[in-house]
Design goal:
There is one protein chain. This protein is about 40% helix and about 25% strand. By secondary structure, it is of the alpha/beta class. About 40% of the residues are buried. α1 crosses α7 and α5 packs across α8. It has a six-stranded mixed β-sheet with strand order 2-3-1-4-5-6, sandwiched between helices. The radius of gyration is 16 Å and the shape is globular. β4, α2 and β5 form a beta-alpha-beta unit. The protein has one domain: 3-Layer(aba) Sandwich (Pyruvate-ferredoxin Oxidoreductase, domain 3).
Length: about 190
């Protein structure tokens, strides 16, 4: 199996690092080599957070180059635009429709980009828009947005739902398992 690359991108507090940890554990459970790299500089202040996850028979680098990402999972709509040049022409883009305004937008210095999903569809054939916040609320906890997006991603990876459930169960305290499973399955059902 050739090395594949997934990039998760968003802002601090959205659960990107937890999602990438679960993703890595799923790949390892099926015997694949996995490398991960993450950047979370100003994450506690709502800054950009990214996690590269690369998997295959033998992965030599945790970072993907531009035009090398098979799947981009954007946890915030504008963050999608920052990383489009990393996605292969044949790649898939999963966009959470949530808008988290950066300071420059809040101060009125620049406008928030309009029609992000439509613009992305001009360049990529496989684009999924997900209202992850609505599905997380439906699951019972807004903080499960990351599990909704993992569920949406899981539909692209063709690994059994039971495997994902086992890893999710092992990743959370008992009292949070049911809500995270529900969020995952709501995302997977898209």
């Amino acid at each position: 199996m050739e090395t594949k690359s997934i990039l998760l991108a968003g802002v601090g507090g959205q659960g990107i690092l937890r999602a990438s940890d679960i993703l890595c554990r799923v790949f390892m459970a099926v015997g694949l080599d996995v490398k991960k790299s993450e950047v979370h500089g100003m994450a506690q202040r709502g800054g950009c957070v990214t996690s590269h996850v690369r998997y295959g028979q033998a992965v030599h680098s945790p970072l993907a180059k531009k035009n090398d990402i098979d799947i981009l999972v954007s946890f915030e709509k504008m963050e999608t635009l920052r990383y489009l040049d990393y996605v292969k022409e044949s790649g898939t883009v999963i966009i959470n429709t949530e808008e988290i305004y950066p300071p420059a937008v809040n101060l009125g210095d620049v406008p928030y980009p309009k029609n992000v999903c439509e613009e992305v569809r001009r360049f990529f054939l496989s684009v999924k828009s997900v209202n992850a916040a609505a599905l997380a609320i439906r699951a019972g906890n807004i903080r499960t947005v990351n599990m909704v997006l993992l569920g949406a991603l899981s539909g692209c990876l063709h690994l059994s739902p039971e495997l994902w459930e086992k890893i999710i169960d092992d990743s959370f305290p008992f009292k949070l398992i049911a809500v995270n499973r529900k969020a995952f399955h709501l995302g997977r059902g898209l």
